[in-house]
Amino acid sequence: MEALSSQGFDPEPRVFKHKLTREFITLEDADREGFITTREEGVSISKARYFAMYPDPDRPGRSLVRAYTGRRRASFFKNREEGTQIVYVLTNPSMTGQVKIGYTKNNAEDRAKSLYTTGVSTPFQVAYEYVCVDGMGLEQQIHKVLDEFRVSDSREFFYVSVGKAIDTILEVAGDKNG
Fold first, then answer.
1. How many Å from the N-terminal Cα to the C-terminal Cα in the chain?
2. What pLDDT does 177 receive?
3. Contact at 8 Å (CB) between 53 and 64?
4. Does 89 lie in the same domain as 169?
5. Residue 80 lies in a domain
6. Strands 50-55, 23-24: parallel, antiparallel or unpaired by DSSP?
7. Together in a domain, 71 and 90
8. Quick one: which H or E segment has residue 163?
9. Claim to verify: residue 59 and residue 118 sit in the same structural domain
10. φ and ψ at 118, to 5 degrees?
């Protein structure tokens, strides 16, 4: 524990909005609870809520730290019947050359309407919907494929055409018949 502190790692939990954002757990607890490692999710360590420390088998006397998000694997399996999730492509005339690629468990029209807030000058329009079983997983894979075209690291907007977005969805989903 002392070696980690000397390397700049602060093992103390941080409080944010009255919630612990960092907590040490065992690897067994993480596995039993189904927490997802930040590596599996492709997110930064700053999003981690739990850490597990365990001995490094290659370097005796040293420890490894694995970071986990608060999301449980079970959330990936909710609502997974055929046709319950939609990966969508939205356009907005105020955002020329950009598309928003996301997923919803409801319907794309409602999602588009919900995005039309005071900070957005014109409403979004649904350009495409792909009905699937695992919208979140498909969306994440699509975002990885299109990462170089991302407008901002923390947003679902991409500088691609609607056609390129649709082709990518079909390619990643393995749907050759579109």
1. 53
2. 45
3. yes
4. yes
5. no
6. parallel
7. no
8. helix 162-173
9. no
10. -65, -20
Task: For residue 113, count other CB atoms closer than 10 A to its CB.
Answer: 12
Task: Report the residue count for the chain.
Answer: 178
* Same domain for 142 and 110: yes
Do 85 and 79 contact (CB within 8 A), yes or no?
Answer: yes
Domain boundary among 20, 47, 75: 75
Of 85, 93, 105, 103, nearest in space to 156 by CA = 103
Are 70 and 149 members of one domain? no
Distance (Å, whole) CA 25 – CA 32: 11
Q: pTM of this prediction? A: 0.55
| Number of folded domains that form the chain | 2
Among 46, 75, 104, the domain boundary falls at 75
The pLDDT, as a whole number, for residue 98 is: 95
| One-letter identity of residue 178 | G
How far apart (Å, rounded) are the C-alpha atoms in residues 104 and 124?
Answer: 15
Task: Pick out the chain residues at pLDDT < 70.
Answer: 1-22, 32-34, 38-47, 70-83, 175-178
19 domain residue, yes or no: yes
Question: What integer pLDDT is reported at residue 59 of this predicted model?
Answer: 81
Look at residue 87 and give its three-state secondary structure.
Answer: strand
- Domain range for 138 is 85-173
List of E strands, 94-155: 99-104, 125-132
* Pairing of the two strands 85-91 and 125-132: antiparallel
